[in-house]
Amino acid sequence: MTPFPSPTSPPPRSALALTDVEVERIRNDFPVLSQRVNGHPLTYLDSGATSQNPISVMEAEQEYYEQRNAAVHRGAHSLAVIATESFELAREKVAAFVGAHTDEIVWTSNATEAINLIAYSFSNASLWLGGPAARRFRLGAGDEIVVTEGEHHANLIPWQQLALRTGATLRFIPVLDDGSLDLAAASEIVNAKTRVLAFTHASNVTGVINPVDDIVAIAKGVGAVTVLDACQTVPHLPVNVAALGVDFAVFSGHKMLGPTGVGALYGRSELLQAMPPFLTGGSMITTVSMEAAEFLAPPQRFEAGTQRISQAIALAAAVDYLTETGMGRIAAWEAELGQRLVAGLAEIPGVRVLGPGVGVERLGLAAVDVAGVHAHDVGQFLDDAGIAVRVGHHCAQPLHKRLGVTASTRASAYLYTTTQEIDLFLATLAEVRPFFGVTDAASSNSIGGK
Questions:
Q1: Residues 82, 293, 395, 438: which is the catalytic one?
Q2: Which of 34, 289, 318, 369 could pair with 258 as two cysteines, CB 3.0-4.6 Å apart?
Q3: pLDDT digits (tens, 9 = 90+) for 94-121
Q4: Of the candidates 265, 288, 323, which is a domain's last residue?
Q5: Where would I find the Aminotransferase class V domain in this sequence (predicted)?
Q6: How many domains is the chain built from?
């Protein structure tokens, strides 16, 4: 394989960014990255879907089971007390990591569950559960829920279903050819009828980072509740949910060096206090009779049953790892990798990048359409070379339809990704069309729209 040359105009180095030497050192903490796949060293470029785990995170979960395993918030014995303290310390760390108060973080299984928690709580409020305080969340005919055309299905389908359950109308803010939101349209679509505005912080397809301040200002202008999907930003950028001014935010542990099976919902304290519960049962009540029950204050109100204790503790270890590395440094490194990606892709004939081009702020990922070759074939060709990427619609079918494709191939970087891996991906991708015999000059490379 001919090495892919560095982009003609490589992005300028940031003094804040990690260095190649530091990244190589970081990689030593991730055992999975040392393996070989199909006879080649593994090049893992699918962190946008699921990140890898450092040794410290795996050890944290194992140590919990070896030394502190017990039911939290239930037993009075010493082991249960220690387990509860560890569980709540994990909540404190995760809350601090995103700029929230401890009682504003609710444990969930993932971000999808977190969004469903909000939507179903609003459904319960619409059924006149939760008392007078929940009145602000009640939806019905004439009310509107607004999402964007660029949403992951996790931040679309729960709102579709909420609209069906309540009679509210679902509307969406369109996406422009480069993947950015049409803010002019947003100002017209969001109106006095809008009760909820749900949007992604950054697209898992285009890498676009949305202007949260502008969107929140539009929502606040009409008194709408804002729900932020922060799955692609909390792992990669410094995020302070309070400073962003959103009412709710969600993120998943498995995308930020943590284990699967744990995520978090951030909700402003006064809103969580007013919301009726989604799941009911043990651990979220104060008193129970055969006729009725009274519920605990948040966050326990929304944490029915036995919790994901070991996963929360391991997620806190992941937060420690990210904090020690420095989120600003990680973000700067990934910004460089993202620019290296799009600069290199612009030089490959027949490859179209979905989203903004070189020089525009983006996450360290890029999804592409390779003219004449299906995304799954592209992915298989890359996998044969030991390169792991994502193929398909990335749980964003409406966005792909808007951009004129049914599927794409996505490479996504993280703090353990090297410039050499980016260049290897580019070099291998450049061989795809020749391998499949697609060489027509009509399919030129492009950025953005159709």
A1: 395
A2: 318
A3: 999 999 999 999 999 999 999 999 999 9
A4: 323
A5: 43-425
A6: 2
